[in-house]
Amino acid sequence: MLLPLGSQALAAEVELRPLRVSNQAPLAKLCGLPTLDRARLLADGEHEAGFSWDLSNNYTLAGNAREQLSFDGESHRFAIRLDRGLSDGWEIGAELLVIAHRRGALDGFVEGWHDFFGLPEGGRDQAASGQLTYSYEKDSRSLFSVRDDEGGLGDLRLLLSRQLHAAADASLALHASVELPTGDGRELLGSGSVDVALWVSAEHLWRPAGQRLSLHGGGGLLASDSGEILSSQRRPLVGTGTLGLAWSTWSWLALQIQFDAHTSLFDGSGLRPIDGASAQMAIGGAAAVAERTRLELAVVEDIVVATAPDVSFHLLLSQRF
Question: I need a surface site. Which of 43, 121, 209, 211 has the fewest CB within 10 A?
């Protein structure tokens, strides 16, 4: 699909920057986890508007003597974001989320994907397709349960960034975000908590033999109050980290691989999907579809099983002006 876009991009050069992906598990996607984001911020008076869509397919069953958990279904995360560059290296932004939980329309495709690559099915090939059950019981008490299609406004995120260093081959930025509880926690559309994140992003660029190679990475901390979801088990402090590589041999197209991880979001459980650190791998890339228009696509897999969705599909379209 991307190859025909090259003729339309003309002489446009795609920016090498991190994939804007994060853990899309039913609980993790609500908890204000930061994405690494650009290490080179917008110039004073420059704007960027973006629309992203993350589709995740989940199938995780876990239990012990006290707990029973089921994540079986699909979730959509839509985000509209606007950033503006300010003077003296500052940048502000806002992101509005819409969350939807649906029955697993891609179950058959994911089972075929796993079968083709020899990946473990984790029992999904023995379960009925097209189900939606996001539920968790502890000590015979239901702590959340979503069994019918749900959708609506998610949480609102406000962002503030500061350029710490910017050179031709390297850049460093400090980012902060506050996520406000505008989504309904009872329907797993929001966390019900105020989530505050602080993180750094860095990149280094090489230009060997007319190509471009960019290494980007960073990490930070997420702090939150108890919120509505598993309030007695929510960890007040979570660490995050990202490392990625982008390579471009054609100016308009970049291929990327990225690893994202975070410490556990909850405690007080013997189940990995609740009380487990997470790591995922994203493979994809970006294309300059016009002079200042960027299309980003990626497929994301859990590399620490049951701590992130079996597979997520990521799309981001952004425009600078």
Answer: 209
